[in-house]
Write a structure and sequence with these properties.
The structure is a homodimer of 452-residue chains. Chain A has helices at 3-21, 24-33, 36-45, 48-57, 61-70, 73-81, 85-93, 97-106, 109-118, 121-131, 138-141, 155-165, 190-195, 202-205, 219-228, 249-267, 280-307, 309-314, 322-346, 354-384, 387-417, 423-449; strands spanning 148-150, 174-178, 184-189, 213-214, 233-237, 243-248. With 452 residues, the first copy, chain A, is mainly α. In chain A, the strands form two sheets. Chain A has a three-stranded mixed sheet. In chain A, α3 (36-45) packs across α5 and α19 (322-346) runs parallel beside α21. At the A-B interface, α1, α12, α13, α15 and α16 of A face α1, α12, α13, α15 and α16 of B.
Chain lengths: 452, 452
């Protein structure tokens, strides 16, 4: 797991050392032979003044463009602050349109307007076309450059067309075939063109059953289709089935990683975006609201305990097992919620099987609760020798862990049913609810059973 | 998020209806035109007898092979139980070798031995070659079919070679160039071949700076490289730099999804593998051990509370805030642990920055603790009007949430440092440790400050 990290660290250290020594010719050599992805890691570790210095050392405008698209958005913003806008525009115009649209969408309006004003007409139209689509839709992530041929072209003509016109298309493995209205009618590949008899027209060997997605489709859905059917790219069509762009598999990988990170953070109630690179104050502010629900829930749990204060006064040992009962419930609840949320995200759990899933989690919680309930009841019996008390503790663990299976699965399933992202409130919400249920069950059962 | 799920549900329902009516010709039509990925979802929803019926209706052996590789491993096992072994072997021999090796590795030894015995020599050698490598290494996931050309071949000769010999290679977009010992020396693409002058030798236009991975590299590392550099495939070489296979981007997507699921489940203490499709008993058994540490920790917390029993007897209100203090600590701990574990997995946090990361999480915990500590102290003051008690509650929240930031970041960082997967024990381990710390701090501070 550390090979990549080690390589990066070595690179960062060398660059820092050379920067300190101001060894410009060395630095020039290094930055020009380093992959833009790696260079973006270096930029993450050095101050903005050094970033600008390295950026100026890049000889190739395509390398500059690649670096732009790999940089974190906030680093990109700081970097271009100090570069004349004309030079930024030059770099942007050398980049694939979808990457440019992504960057521009992340800029503050006054900056993006200034850049769009300076861009040449052709690129500008494409970028503005892309900016029309929602950020996280197929339209928003597609590249508008693709190879589209017509169905009457022969294999030979198609190859010639590619040789002449499509030098600069990113990742050209699929060749899309369109009719006279630009509507998608088939797909072929360079592979097939090379193997087919030269005079054979495309329509005789193209595949007509093409997977395609609509411009408005959510990016997560697009990623699922590409992953499910092992595609390298999927064509994007508008409402009239006109081919308008493609989404390539490298973008899909980014989406899958980003969605997984978002789900993980949301489930832990740690916000939507990765906060580790932000300042302490910023990161506290982002995490603060997610704890508020827990705090309110915790206060409710306190009030419930306060309601039983008289009993607690008489039987102080009741307080001893509150933590372990809440803890066990919380853990099972987290297990169930995680399994359900991830199952929904990966399609292994179907939203329509609500009761089947909930029943299963409830049963699992009950079984686990019976086992650990017996164990913890034994501890209580051994420590205090009051059978009714030990029984109460055992029963409370069973109730708490069964409720955990129920709540942990029901909440995300219901949220998904009404189209709310089940990952959002699941984590802290479920564990706080379970605290309330656990203390209520426990103290209610104990005060009822144990003779005071 | 539900388009794919809806489509699948409709398909499953139609198939079930047709199975009930035993409408064989309809079923035959449907299964033969359905993508194997979708058919595998149908198989997940129907009993094994129906699965066999549908399988027999598949006309094309390649379609049968594709279905095999999409099926969940346990469904595959049950399905082939009822099929004569010769027919299973026929299907396997039509499949890409890496998929066959995957399936065979998942079978019980007596079954896999029986199958290997029946396989033809050529395929057998390739499969056994792959089985030698670790399951989750580059060698274990690579496909041994790839296009390798020699550097003196011209563009035209290369195209002819592809037309003649490489009809059946999966996803041929990169063409690897090897020397006389089979060592990897460069890479080209069909794209470049088509565009290059026909008589130009490969060595004049191939790219010599090729990304490659060693057979023993962990699959997660391979996935990182493919994702980082936007590759469609990465060549796998042995210790002598001899090209032995390729890992394609579709396998990388599966790895990324699988690793994300594993991390999520591990963090929640819900095991390594997805248990939702297993029986209630099986799933309980898998989840049981993960709760044991929490249970032990909970019992320790109980003993600590028991130690303060006299004070609790005199001041029953002390018990009232135990739950909310533990809960707030647990939530912040989960936030910190999640951010660090995911940050390490995605490379946004570097393992060498241990103290920087821990200090930051500790500070964030302290800030959040001060805010919520003040809030909860106000509630305590309002309810009981005992200033020393309210102060104790507030201080306990600060201690608990600061400790949460510290433990939540330190534990995964240290685990990563000694090369233990940080996701494994983080979740339940961190929250249980925090319960112990929280009750200790709280009761110690309260008994010290509040005059009895």
């Amino acid at each position: 797991m550390n090979i990549q990290a080690d390589r990066n660290k070595i690179l960062v250290e060398s660059v820092k050392r050379l920067l300190r020594r101001d060894a410009v010719s060395h630095l020039r050599k290094i930055v020009n032979k380093t992959h833009a992805a790696d260079l973006s890691s270096v930029f993450r570790a050095i101050p903005v003044s050094s970033q600008r210095k390295l950026f100026d050392l890049l000889d190739n405008i395509n390398q500059k463009g690649a670096l732009f698209s790999y940089l974190d958005k906030d680093i990109f913003l700081d970097l271009i602050e100090g570069i004349p806008i004309e030079r930024v525009v030059d770099v942007l115009e050398s980049m694939p349109t979808d990457d440019v649209a992504d960057l521009i969408a992340s800029l503050p309006p006054e900056k993006s307007d200034a850049i769009l004003l300076k861009m040449k007409k052709e690129g500008l139209e494409e970028v503005e076309g892309l900016l029309r689509y929602g950020d996280e839709t197929a339209g928003g992530i597609m590249a508008p450059d693709f190879i589209a041929l017509t169905q009457d072209m022969t294999a030979k003509e198609s190859i010639e067309a590619i040789q002449k016109e499509h030098h600069d298309v990113e990742m050209a493995f699929y060749l899309y075939v369109v009719d006279e209205y630009g509507r998608l009618v088939g797909v072929s590949s360079l592979r097939q063109l090379v193997v087919a008899p030269p005079e054979k027209p495309l329509k005789d060997f193209m595949v007509t059953d093409v997977f395609s997605v609509q411009t408005g489709m959510d990016q997560e859905e697009v990623a699922k289709i590409v992953a499910r059917y092992d595609l390298l790219a999927v064509p994007v069509v508008d409402d009239n089935n006109k081919l308008v762009g493609i989404v390539t598999v490298d973008d899909v990988i980014d989406i899958i990683k980003q969605e997984a990170t978002e789900d993980i953070l949301k489930m832990a109630g740690a916000g939507y975006e990765f906060v580790e690179n932000k300042s302490i104050i910023k990161s506290s502010r982002l995490r603060l609201p997610w704890l508020f629900a827990s705090c309110m829930g915790g206060i409710v749990a306190s009030l419930i305990i306060a309601y039983f204060e008289d009993s607690l006064q008489k039987m102080a040992y009741l307080a001893v097992f509150i933590t372990v009962i809440c803890g066990m419930g919380g853990n099972v609840g987290t297990q169930s919620a995680t399994i359900v949320v991830r199952g929904l995200a990966t399609g292994r759990i179907n939203i329509r099987e609500l009761w089947k899933v909930v029943f299963k989690e409830l049963s699992t919680g009950f079984i686990l609760g019976s086992i650990y309930g017996a164990l913890i009841a034994c501890v209580a019996q051994f420590r205090y020798g009051i059978a009714t008390f030990a029984l109460s503790v055992g029963l409370a663990v069973i109730c708490s862990m069964s409720a955990a299976g129920l709540i942990g699965s029901l909440v995300p399933m219901l949220l998904a049913k009404v189209n709310i992202d089940p990952a959002v409130a699941t984590g802290p919400f479920v564990s706080t609810t379970l605290d309330i249920i656990s203390v209520s069950c426990y103290l209610f059962i104990a005060t009822a059973l144990v003779s005071q």
